[in-house]
Amino acid sequence: MTATVDLASGTRMPALGLGTWPMGDDDTERAVLDAARAGYRLFDTAENYHNERGVGRGLRGCGVPREELFVTTKFNRAWHGEELVRSYLEASMKRLQVEYVDLLLIHWPNPSYDRYVQAWRGLIQLRDEGLVRAIGVSNFKPAHLERLREATGVLPEVNQVQLHPYVTRPEERAYHFQHGIVTESWGPLGRGDARLLQEPVITTLAAQYGKTPAQIVLRWHLELGLVPIPKTSSPERMRENLEVFDFALARDEVAAISALDDGSVMGVDSDVSGH
């Protein structure tokens, strides 16, 4: 897979990646090896997934040069401080066995903890020093992003949010588009909700294009300019998930899928959730 998106700093990020939650180290290692062989170059992990070591082993064993790989990880609120972020990164790089991280994210804003601005300042410093290529956040609302902008003058390059046809987050996407932030979709296939891939609008399009329902949904993400990171440990599904760059959905088809949004009642609320 060669398709990429450009981040604000000029870093190129693969347009589709592999999510690794929930998998332990051994399963993650196998999944990363299989995914790299299938053509994946973006791999997403986090402190809270407890599988950074597995990701690292898979990356070291896959035979792909490090500069061709894009490694993302995320840290919890215990590291929300300018120097604390540095401590986390050092420990994370040891677990991953890498000399730099491509994209480092604040996993949740945890507004009641009220230290995400300090964490953001630490991320800016790490990027300036070249220890991370790009910096961003996860599960941040526009209000949280505005606070970062007002406090530092710097906005994230990426915001990774729960996003799929039932939870389309138009407000967040509009803010991101306006400010040059790439939207990365976690849970892009409905986070285990089997109903999504059985929706008539999706199954009809799958039959029309000769694709699977999952491929239609992933193509919907790409048409909206999103970067989906579906999790799978199946080599067959890994290959299928990559086979979404050889067709395009019409604008009205994208709109029909977006109309499945239920008002985001299924979406997590990052003013309440987090770790």
Main β-sheet description = 8 strands, parallel
Alpha-carbon distance between the two ends: 33 Å
Number of strands: 10
Q: Give the number of helices.
A: 10
The chain-level structural class is alpha/beta
Beta strand %: 15-25%
CATH topology-level fold name? TIM Barrel
- The arrangement of helices and strands along the chain is EEEHEHEHEHEHEHEHHEHH
Radius of gyration from the alpha-carbon trace, in angstroms: 18 Å
Q: Please give the share of residues in helix.
A: 40-55%
CATH superfamily: NADP-dependent oxidoreductase domain
Mean pLDDT: 95
The coarse overall form would be globular
Q: Strand order within the widest sheet?
A: 3-4-5-6-7-8-9-10
Low-confidence stretches: none
- The figure for the number of domains is 1
CATH level-two architecture: Alpha-Beta Barrel
Q: Output the CATH class name.
A: Alpha Beta
